[in-house]
Amino acid sequence: MRQHGSWQGDGIYFGADYNPEQWPEQVWADDVALMRRAGVNLVSVGIFSWALLEPSPGRYEFDWLDRALDVLHAGGIHVDLATATASPPPWLAHRHPETLPSTADGTVLWPGGRQGYCPSSPIFRQRSLALVEAVADRYAEHPAVVMWHISNELGCHNVHCYCDVSADAFREWLRERYGDLDRLNDAWGTTFWSQRYHDWAEINPPRAALTFANPTQQLDFLRFSSDAQRAQLRAEREVLKRRVRQPVTTNFMIGMGIKHMDYHSWASDVDLVANDHYLTVTDPNAHLGLAFAADHTRGVAGGDPWLLMEHSTSAVNWQPRNVAKTPGQLRRNSLTHVARGADGVLFFQWRASRAGAEKFHSALVPHAGPDTKVFDEVCRLGADLRALAEVRGSRVDAEVAILFDWEAWWGVELDSHPSVDVTYADRMRALYDALWRAGVTADVVHPSTDLSGYRLVLVPTLYLVRDADAEALSRYVAGGGTALVTYFSGIVDEHDHIRLGGYPGAFRELLGVRTEEFFPLLAGDRVVLDDGSTADVWTEWLHPAGAEVVASYEDGPLPGVPALTRHRVGDGTAWYLATRLDEAATDALVGRLLTEAGVRPPVAAPTGVEVVRRRADDRSWLFVVNHTDAEVTLDATGTDLLTGQPCGGTLRVPAGEVAVVREEQAVTEAVPAVEPPPAAAA
Ligand code: GAL
Ligand code: ZN
């Protein structure tokens, strides 16, 4: 379990990955002076330094790291110390080529990049844990160290390894899961296509094969691969926990870009949740993607404050065109993370590298030095974060939940499905973005979360769902909640077996509908609904079975068939959306659900202005991020902590700026338990 409140120091953490080993030692003193000028108080050190710390097996050289930590400590900078296992040194693969990972077609990936190891390799495990022991023994008591950083972005590059070592580990994992072969054969549906296994040794990872690999084999391999990464996390954590008292974390990659680590299951293995987030610059709604990732990170953290371990001050180096951030964008990005529950804002990396693959990645100190727009903005952000110290430890207000499950993501995007246009991100972001535009904050949470405190629950594309989670959603609605389920949800159980009797399987009764056949649309085809809205991608032959019809198709393959339904269940209402509504219609539907469920934004704000409330026992703060190019005014009374100015009723926020108002009348009440929705829903 996470140890709540175990962070050290005061206020909001601010800093970066710091790689002193890339620079001559004379630079270190300048670094610390600049860190102090910027207000940096925490740096992650040593992440990629294994090859320096252990130049040959078992021979450790810590002197340079001793000196670096001492310089930082003398400057008052705290350290999040890496276990340094993120990337093995060249000698490992040279001596033990069997530690190298393989792709599905058997290609062995050579060292020379990073993270070049098979996650199931016992040799890697043994060598990496020996390093963790040595680092922990040496620095457990170092006064600069306030946190431990296990590996780095576990699974970022090497999550799926298909080598023989991994194949053995996969078989072991399957034995644990199923006990005997009959159960595995049932779960994998191996009577199909003559796939029945009679010996464990016959089973392999889903290596490159003719036509489609068995879907449950694929799904189990994804589960196994996430667990294999998690096993490294847990093994390192165990070594640390016997030696150190500081909180232990690792950097997750929660967002819609990285799919293969089930962080919901990992959350209990860290003392605080930390996340890395990089903007998708080609996305005109990149700031909504950022908000989504932050709300999801908070969901994974169970609502507790979390740490933004990495983001970028400006451009990255790994996209085809690496667009720089415009003035003010860095500040809006960072403070949006804080608004949504981050109690620390760190970056990759402190000083832009001179050499190596990431030399064109932005940093706090650019190649051009501190006399730059970037360093000015860094200093301004440092001052902002100091002014926000009192926010630390407070929680974010949300009355709406969006259900998210990595296994549903993996399941829905397996091959040979009705339509390739049904992706997990699609309706997830469509519903989230509609809430964002309505000014409403959501918790993005796992389906097993206690939903009783939410007024509204949105369930996008929950293709794979466990019985218990489906039942919990029904109980939530019966108890007075409002829920919306979108198409291609409730279709299969955890083995990817269809729930028979009509779609949407697990949710048929709750939604009061029964679908007999899917009618996906061809690319570019659209249908019109009788309320004037349009839709694409998906339609289905749905029969109401207790639900009221809200809208039906006017044309397309199923004229007259319902597309949107509403079902009264106990004291609540369950909506089903059987098609992919356009953006305006999605906004209208979400607006209607918010009204019926009695959810309002913290304060009314113009479009493009993000408002989030954090609250503690006796205080509350309104975060206002103005993404528009005009000054906006909102109703607020209190003090803007960023300017120090009072606002008596009206808050002005200039174009592109941010305000954080400590509210004079604190809003400290917990979200009320769900009551029956008002008459409108009857
Ligand atoms: C992260 C990684 C960092 C750095 C950064 C660049 O994935 O953890 O080490 O590579 O990306 O954006
Ligand atoms: Zn392997």
TrEMBL record:
UniProt domain Beta-galactosidase trimerisation: residue ranges: 398-599
Q: Which residues form the Beta-galactosidase C-terminal domain?
A: 608-663
UniProt domain Glycoside hydrolase family 42 N-terminal: residue ranges = 17-387
State which Enzyme Commission number(s) the record gives. Answer: 3.2.1.23
List keywords of the entry alphabetically: Glycosidase, Hydrolase
Superkingdom of the organism of origin: Bacteria
Matches recorded under InterPro entries: Beta_galactosidase_C, Beta_galactosidase_Trimer, Class_I_gatase-like, GH, Glyco_hydro_42, Glyco_hydro_42_N, Glyco_hydro_b
Query: Catalytic activity, per the record?
Result: Hydrolysis of terminal non-reducing beta-D-galactose residues in beta-D-galactosides
**Pfam families (UniProt xref):** Glyco_hydro_42, Glyco_hydro_42C, Glyco_hydro_42M
| Family statement drawn from the similarity comment of this UniProt entry | Belongs to the glycosyl hydrolase 42 family.
Protein name (database record) = Beta-galactosidase
